[in-house]
Amino acid sequence: GSHRFTLDQAGLVGDAINVNAQGWYTDGDGEFSGEWRVQRMQALVADLNGQAGGRWRALSQAVANREERAWIITTDGTGSGIRGNPAVVAQLLGATPQLNARLRYENHAFTVENAQLDGARLRAGALGRIVNSQADLSLEISATGPIALGDAEISGAVDATGRLKSMRRFAHASLTQLGR
Questions:
Q1: What's the pTM?
Q2: Which of 57, 93, 97, 168 allows an S-S link to 79, with CB 3.0 to 4.6 Å?
Q3: CB under 8 Å to 19, separation ≥6 — which residues?
Q4: Residues 6+ apart with CB under 8 A from 64
C-alpha cells in the first residue's frame, strides 16, 4: 500500500541561519519547500556584514528508463546590507546581490545545472557535479570597475572562466582571463 508522509512545518533555527520547510512524500513522489535566511553573514565569511534570504523548493522527478527518481532543488534569494571585509567582496557584491540556483540530486550526487550570483559589479556562474563532497565545477565570472583596493583603484572589466575542484578539506581553483 501507499504511505504518505506530510510535513506541516519544520524549522532549523540558529543565531545566524534559519531554514523552514513544509511538504509531502508518497512512494517516490514528493515536494518540499520553504524559506532560508542568513541573519549574520559573518557565519559564512568572517568579516562580511549583512543578511540574505530567499526561497527553496525540492521536487521529486521521474528519471527516464529507470525506477529511480531525482530530486530537483531550486533556490533564489537576495542579500541586504552587504558590507565589510574583504572590501573587494563587498564592492563586487554590492548591498543587495541576487542568487539563484538549480541542482539535481540522483545516484548519490549533485549536478549543479545552474548557479548564478549577480552583484553590483560581479556576475558569477557555475555548473558541474559534486560527488562524495568532491566538486568539479565550471566557473564563469565577469567583474566591472571601478574597484578600490586600498589606495589603488581598478577600472575596466574582466571576464574569466575556470574550474573549481575540491575535496573535503582542500579546494583548487584555476581561472583564465578572457579580457575585455
A1: 0.84
A2: 97
A3: 11, 12, 34, 35, 36, 37, 56
A4: none
pLDDT tier for residue 180 given thresholds of 50, 70 and 90: very low
pLDDT of 134 above 80: yes
How many angstroms separate the CA atoms of 43 and 55, rounded?
19
User: How much of the chain is helix, strand and coil, in % rounded to 5?
Assistant: 5, 70, 25
Question: How far apart, in whole angstroms, are the C-alpha atoms of residue 145 and residue 157?
Answer: 6
pLDDT in tens, 33-89: 999 999 999 988 888 899 999 999 999 988 777 777 899 999 999 999 999 888 888
Q: Which amino acid is at 79?
A: G
- d(CA 126, CA 27) in angstroms, rounded, equals 33
Bond prior to 86 in cis (omega within 30° of 0): yes
